[in-house]
Amino acid sequence: MTTASSPHNPQSTVDLGAQYITCTPHYAKTHQSFYDELLAGGILKPLISPIDGMVTKEGDCNFVAPHGVSSIINHYLKQSGADICFRQRVTQINLRDNKWEVSRETGSSEQFDIVVLTMPAPQILQLRGDITNLISECQRQQLESVSYSSRYALGLFYEAGTKIDVPWAGRYITSNPCIRFISIDNKKRNIESSEIGPSLVIHTTVPFGVTHLEHSTEDVQELIFKQLENIVPGLPQPVATKCQKWRHSQVTNAAANSLGQMTLHLQPLLVCGGDGFTQSNFDGCITSALCVLEALKNHI
């Protein structure tokens, strides 16, 4: 759920990850309070813009985030009252005097009573320190079984007043080896402005993503541009671009029998959660969050 801003105008944004949220009739009931809250706060609104090639099932509702999909995350972070530190890469987790000592790539280590890990499963397995001995063989096998698709997303930002003349707000592409999805983000969100230029996002196919995973983003960006010209000819030159590599994009196989979370240690508590333990969509994230919360409540 990443939204990037144009370096020329922070109000010009593009969703590089999740594009819209699909709610099934089942989750419309079980997660109704979450949807009601986000809709009431204007964080979500119904998706009414045309998405060419979108497959919809009967009873499904699609929603879009008018302020970018990361506004959903910001809403919950703000509600939590938590002190948030970004760009802190955890490298080691060790047991020290019945607390967790967490080391990061830069800066000193810190101690915590409880640790919740929500990064992709392969990154949990890459952590060093005592955590490596605390993961049971069964849990290790479960974490190793989690698999992900890989893809690239390319965001393009245009000058105010630029016209992109296509009849759709988003389009699924089935006949291109490189490009799977294109969205004109401001059109998808049903927002037109004379002061803010349009933004466009391209998602690659998974086979393309896997093949070019270790290539430079500059090379990948060039390849995407070439294919984009075939699909939407004559696009103007963007004023800025943002190429995002999703090494761990969507979960293709979740951890078996994990019930939404995995408790690695009880005293002190160390819990894993996230879509790797459910499914890669908004409701999968909520389900895992509720399961982690239950584990914390039982412990506290």
TrEMBL record:
Flavoprotein is among the record's keywords: yes
Coiled coil stretches, renumbered: none
Record domain Amine oxidase: where: 57-269
Entry keywords, A to Z: FAD, Flavoprotein
GO cellular component: extracellular region
One Gene Ontology term of the molecular function aspect: oxidoreductase activity, acting on NAD(P)H
Record-linked InterPro entries: Amino_oxidase (IPR002937), FAD/NAD-bd_sf (IPR036188), RNLS (IPR040174)
Record protein name field: Amine oxidase domain-containing protein
